[in-house]
């Protein structure tokens, strides 16, 4: 038999396609991934991965092992979820993945109230822009701005996050739209709906800078670097920012909550889901249409 830890590292390489990416996802170093993969190949006496200069490619045997290993992984997680549901009282840890802007500017403000109301539940919150897998237990619950599509998840729309254009009150071109320069996303986020909206509103006007996350957009706008498309629930409360009128359409993203179907009745998971439902649906900033 093979070591499951070795197989887990192989799965990460197979999914991501690089040793460095697999290492980041597993929170280990590059050498550990390489060592684990080599050990698995030695155990199986089969080459699973072709090491290329900048990536990895599965061999024919590696592709088949990858398919079978994914089924094993799903069954292992299913057993884990079954035991959680069968044995767990209203206590324990619940992991929540959410967009960084929701974590930093909204969720953290409610954590004290949650802790007072539910002292037995430890909430572990991770701010992640990427789509995570609930089937692989990368989180118990996910909040996302794109509707999750995993077949094993139960999804509910909680509200809408409105965006508009903002600039520092000291921005020199604040009242001269023809001279606006825009803060946009870098090439790695070219497919984001916010980017398409921003570029459509800009209509050929200059780009001041490219930044890969919304927190950076906020800081750059506060510093007077240009005009940014920001979530209204964040920017409207900043006394140093001004919402600027423009001819283009406003923009909004739906806020979705997802949970694996096997975990949705787990008491502590239900508690966190009800908490999220309450704080989002009762906040006017997330019920106003764009």
Question: Would you kindly provide a written description of the structure presented here, covering whatever features stand out?
Answer:
- The protein has 290 residues and is an alpha/beta fold.
- It has three domains: 4-85, Orthogonal Bundle (Arc Repressor Mutant, subunit A), CATH 1.10.10; 91-158 and 253-286, Periplasmic binding protein-like II (D-Maltodextrin-Binding Protein, domain 2), CATH 3.40.190.10; 161-252, D-Maltodextrin-Binding Protein, domain 2 (3-Layer(aba) Sandwich).
- 40% of the residues lie in helices and 22% in strands.
- The chain has ten helices and eleven strands.
- Strands 3, 4, 5, 6, 7, 8, 9, 10 and 11 form a nine-stranded mixed beta sheet that branches.
- A hairpin with a 4-residue loop joins strand 1 and strand 2.
- Helix 1 packs across helix 3 (30-44), helix 1 (4-16) packs across helix 4 and helix 2 packs across helix 3 (30-44).
Rounded radius of gyration (Å): 22 Å
Number of helices: 10
CATH superfamily of the largest domain: Periplasmic binding protein-like II
Question: Which fold name is given in CATH as the topology of the largest domain?
Answer: D-Maltodextrin-Binding Protein, domain 2
User: Level of helix content?
Assistant: 25-40%
Pfam family, one: LysR_substrate
Protein name: LysR family transcriptional regulator
Family: Belongs to the LysR transcriptional regulatory family.
InterPro entries: LTTR, LysR_HTH_N, LysR_subst-bd, WH-like_DNA-bd_sf, WH_DNA-bd_sf
């Amino acid at each position: 038999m093979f070591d499951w830890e070795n197989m887990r590292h192989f799965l990460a390489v197979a999914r991501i396609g690089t040793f460095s990416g697999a290492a980041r996802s597993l929170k280990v170093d590059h050498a550990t991934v390489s060592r684990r993969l080599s050990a698995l190949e030695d155990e199986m006496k089969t080459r699973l991965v072709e090491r290329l200069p900048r990536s990895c490619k599965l061999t024919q045997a590696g592709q088949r092992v990858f398919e079978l290993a994914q089924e094993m992984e799903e069954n292992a997680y299913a057993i884990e979820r079954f035991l959680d549901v069968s044995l767990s009282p209203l206590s324990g840890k619940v992991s929540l993945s959410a967009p960084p802007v929701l974590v930093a500017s909204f969720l953290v403000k409610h954590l004290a109230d949650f802790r007072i109301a539910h002292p037995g539940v430890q909430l572990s919150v991770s701010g992640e822009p990427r789509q995570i897998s609930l089937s692989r237990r990368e989180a118990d619950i996910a909040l996302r701005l794109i509707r999750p599509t995993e077949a094993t998840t139960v999804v509910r729309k909680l509200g809408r996050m409105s965006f508009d254009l903002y600039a520092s009150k000291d921005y020199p071109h604040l009242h001269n739209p023809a001279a606006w320069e825009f803060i946009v996303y870098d090439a790695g986020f070219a497919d984001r709906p916010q980017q398409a909206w921003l570029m459509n509103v800009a209509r050929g006007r200059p780009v001041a800078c490219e930044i890969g996350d919304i927190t950076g957009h906020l800081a750059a706008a506060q510093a007077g670097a240009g005009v940014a498309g920001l979530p209204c629930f964040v920017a409207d409360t900043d006394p140093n920012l001004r919402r600027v009128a423009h001819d283009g359409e406003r923009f909004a993203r739906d806020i979705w909550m997802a949970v694996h179907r096997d975990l949705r009745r787990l008491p502590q998971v239900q508690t966190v889901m009800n908490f999220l439902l309450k704080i989002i649906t009762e906040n006017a900033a997330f019920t106003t249409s764009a």
